[in-house]
Amino acid sequence: MQEEEIMTVGSGNVFADIGHPHPQEALAKARLIHRITTVVKNRGLKWKDAAKLLGISPKEFSLVVDGELLDEVTIGQLMDYLAALNNDTEIIVRDAYRPVQFRVAG
Predict the structure, then answer these.
(1) Mean pLDDT in consecutive groups of 10 residues from the start of the chain, 106 residues
(2) CA–CA separation, 70 and 64 (whole Å)
């Protein structure tokens, strides 16, 4: 007898799906981190050179981009890192029927 497969449709926010206590914030941070890594890769920077630009150690940079410091790093810090990489970040606030969104232009 073949076992029945069960598929669960995600919410669009993996952090909400896994029960993270602050899923919107975690998703915003993940998007900012993704943009940071994209900019660093597109510029051909080595991790140590990127870390120097951001004013952090290579170890800390590695922990940030690997998501190991997701709960510790702030959205403000990530926005500062993007600014150090000559990128702007927009925060869009909407009414109660539409949640706050963070937009990282690319």
Answers:
(1) 78 88 93 96 96 97 95 96 93 69 64
(2) 7
CATH number at residue 81: 1.10.260.40
The answer as to whether 69 is a domain residue is: yes
- pLDDT for the residue numbered 102: 64
pTM for this structure?
A: 0.80
Residue the block writes with tokens 């949640």: 99
